[in-house]
Amino acid sequence: MYTQSFNVPDTTEPTGAKAPLSLVGVVSPLSEQDAAAQTRFDTKLNADQKIEPQDWMPEAYRKTLVRQISQHAHSEIVGMLPEGNWISRAPSLKRKAILIAKVQDEGGHGLYLYSAAETLGTSRDQMLADLHSGKAKYSSIFNYPTLTWADVGVIGWLVDGAAIMNQIPLCRCSYGPYARAMIRVCKEESFHQRQGYESLLTLMRGTAEQQAMVQDAVNRWWWKCLAMFGPPDSDSPNSVQGMRWGIKRISNDDLRQKFVDATVPQAEVLGVRLPDPDLKWNEARQHYDFGAIDWDEFWATVNGNGPCNKERLATRVKAHQEGQWVREAALAYAHKQAQKNSLKQEAA
Ligand code: FAQ
Known about the structure:
Helix content is 64%, strand content 2%. It is mainly α and 348 residues long. Helix 3 (59-78) packs antiparallel against helix 5, helix 7 runs parallel beside helix 9 (208-227) and helix 7 (149-167) packs across helix 11. The structure holds Phenylacetyl coenzyme A. Phenylacetyl coenzyme A (FAQ) binds at residues 67-68, 71-72, 75-76, 79, 106, 137, 139-140, 155, 159-160, 163, 166, 228, 230-231, 236-239, 242, 248, 252, 302.
């Protein structure tokens, strides 16, 4: 699909290799064959070349990628729900058409990402089963309700804005299919962010009630968006390894800071106040200082106890069950086409 490679892992390479000792500290001797494969892998990473599906890779690298890419895919498709909630209530035909297209784009991002994860040897059925059983994570941000139309604009501006900040460095991720998928995703997310901002600008030029609605939405989403970048670097168990492998290029805290620095001037142009009394420019650091994030609330949400976790999961499971007949019909059609083609080939 698009820029994705659909190559599958090469099974002729050694399979039982462990991650390098220097990277994870697992003391386990490598066979000669595995050590040679490990050296080729390290050389590629050091030269900033892409690892492709057919390349040998340490099992821990593969596992980390499946974890992150599948979580990312789940976030995209669960992320369709909060905004999807407003499609039938958009204030004009123009806004409705834009919102339908945006939500559809997010579904598309999910598909590129599931495809990228499949190149690592994990089936889409398995990934979806993990999402539906509650075993797999998806982004905390999609477990909050969208209470007013202004929430749709704020999701575009802040949630897509945070997503782009995190995803631009992923275009340089060491795993080829993920990096290539991210290029297209980032282009679309940039458009999403602009449409959200433009929608908010329109509301801010409107009545006092509309302006208050935007401010209320910003108040409710701001802190959740800061938390979306993940725990502080000091509490992020996956960061060090992810960065050594070139999966993550910029740390959670650094991305969060970049997001704050980029967003403050946008809020000024918009005419909204970011709800943080500690937010101020620090001349010495050349960055904005900001207040403390409520990490207890973040972890409660990540662990299934946010305001909408149960509702989001139930909606996903229902949509999957109701789509069963579509998947069956598509498979039956593909089977019929394959039979027709083989009959044609036999006749030729
Ligand atoms: N929510 O050690 P770290 C979007 C988990 S797409 C839930 O720092 P890592 C588009 C983390 O998984 C948004 N869980 O982990 C859109 C780990 O748990 P695990 C999604 C979170 O992987 C817009 C544990 O905490 N974007 O918005 C979150 O190095 C609008 C420890 O954390 C991506 O997925 C969280 N916010 O860094 C759609 C980008 N943060 O797995 C619709 C790709 C952390 O060990 C509408 N992912 N956790 O059990 C990444 O860049 C990384 O995976 C991070 C986390 C940065 C999310």
